[in-house]
Amino acid sequence: MLRDKYQKEIDEILSRYPVRRSALIPLLYVAQRDQGYVSESAMQEIAKLLRLTPPQVYETVTFYTMFNLKPVGKFHIQVCKSLMCALVGSDTVIEWIKMKLGIAPGESTADGLFTLSAVECLAGCGTAPMMQINEDYYERLTEDKLDHILADLRSTGTSSLKTGPFMWPEPVNGKG
Amino acid sequence: MPQHELILLKNMMQPSYTGSLQDYEKAGGYQAVRNTLGKVAPADVTTIVRKSGLRGRGGAGFPTGVKWGFLPKDYHGPRYLCCNADESEPGTFKDRQLMERDPHQVLEGIVLACYAIGAETAYIYIRGEMVLGSRILEQAINEARAAGYIGKNILGTGINADVWVHRGAGAYICGEETALLESLEGKRGLPRIKPPFPATHGLYNKPTVVNNVETLANLPHIMNRGAEWFAAIGSPPKSTGTRVFCVSGHVKRPGNYEVPMGITIRELVYEHAGGMRFDKPLKAIIPGGASAPFLTPGHLDVKLDFEHVATAGSMLGSGGVTVMEEGTSMVWAALRLMEFFYHESCGKCSPCREGSSWLVQTLRRILAKRGRMEDLETLLDLCKNIAGRTVCAFGDAEVAPIQSTLKHWRQEYVDLIHEAETANLIKPEPVARH
Questions:
Q1: pLDDT tens-digit map of A96-134
Q2: Which residue among A123, A128, A165 places its CB closest to the CB of B92?
Q3: Which residues from B are below 8 Å from A120, CB to CB?
Q4: How far apart are CA B251 and CA B253, in angstroms?
Q5: Domains of chain B and CATH, by start
Q6: Which residue of A has its CA nearest to B18?
Q7: Which end of chain A has fewer surrounding CB within 10 Å, N or C?
Q8: d(C-alpha A134, C-alpha A132), whole Å
């Protein structure tokens, strides 16, 4: 049960809002972090916590693309395919990943490590092509960089190539 | 290239600047809160902002001070401020930088806005994908709360303003202010019919102001240096201040550039962004995010301010400037944007929900060289029946790429269709009857 496991966090979330239902999306995030996706039992429990009906929770969760209603791979690769990224090669990035991992958008690798999605704009147009893997952004992608990222993820579960606090172009000494 | 004074990006341009409270204070941060709260009447803050000419940086460009002025004066219940950080307009990536590199500048703006409108609670609605940004903001809020700039009894003035980060979950439409409010209430992000406007019936049906990140980040500077100072920057009287333009596409140096409003597209593209990659000729420009109609090389000398871009037939929007080189298929570009709008249509209004799907199918058919001349009329007819016939501005936005590419590059559509007809490799699909 989420309540037993995350009591303090849930109470803190509820305290931010004068109306309980506002805590719905934050609580769905708690559920997704716990299981990797939002399960039906989690939705039932959240409905009780917020004094909503299960359909009220379901109608909200199905509107938002970031909630997975079924399990996804350990690393969810989301490549931006919108125009600004496509202008500078996002389709090629998707092809590389297809070749390297043997999966098309919407599919997962058999070992359950990777899921590939082609998604719409992630606000990294100036550093395109780019992708998001779980919580991290990876930008200005090249085939070499992609190889490094995938190898890093396989071996350590994270990669130092992820974007830190964003700024582009980066500040230069003696300028600006 | 003429050097312009940086306002919003000034701190972060220092390579040693970390965005911490300490760094921000060292750069003069929170002086506006110190000098305003309890010292300048809230109504006077609104007047100053109105006189500065500051207009919303999210897309619609509504005058900020005027928006604040719509709140009921005689209402004594709770009021809310929502910081719109749902930056999702394709081509736009400025708010992300403002939040992640100088979060206190945004927070100081939020506190000032809360004070001006009498709100004791503010929610930063940040797009769900920006996990790092939400963490940086939460950390900054904790710092500011500990230092007494946020929370109860700010700096001993008796004024309260608490700030919370609320993550969205991947819906473009939640950048529309009433959809944002619905989403913040835990519902599907479906835009509300206006009126009533959020100023009177907003979050939880209470008076609410929704302001964009960049808009709010301007407030400390306006309070510190005065309305006249701000009003003299840019392209007065209607487009004052700077804009952080996000340049993307086929340029040598894409990225965020803060410049006074009113510089030309040419200056932004060829000087700041370094010109075209591979030095190819420029073919098309989107001046204000995916919702803004395409412009042509003939528009390179158009000034980047609200009026001039509107006169040229487009809009300044969110400041996302996308540049395309010669050789880019405009039909393909319109389709890519149309696929975005189809994916993001919230489904509330039939013209947008059904029309976006129909537009995508028709464009795909033309691009696959299976189109026929009637398709062009179908496209225009659909566009005409979507724009202005939906609850929110999404309907107007989604037809912009098609209408503008058909206006400027109609021949590309015609060529694809002719190719389909003359090659006759595949029989054109029968015209759909609806």
A1: 999 999 999 999 999 999 999 999 999 999 999 999 999
A2: A123
A3: 90, 172, 339-340, 343-344
A4: 6
A5: 11-232 (3.40.50.11540), 235-325 (3.10.20.600), 330-423 (1.20.1440.230)
A6: A165
A7: N
A8: 6
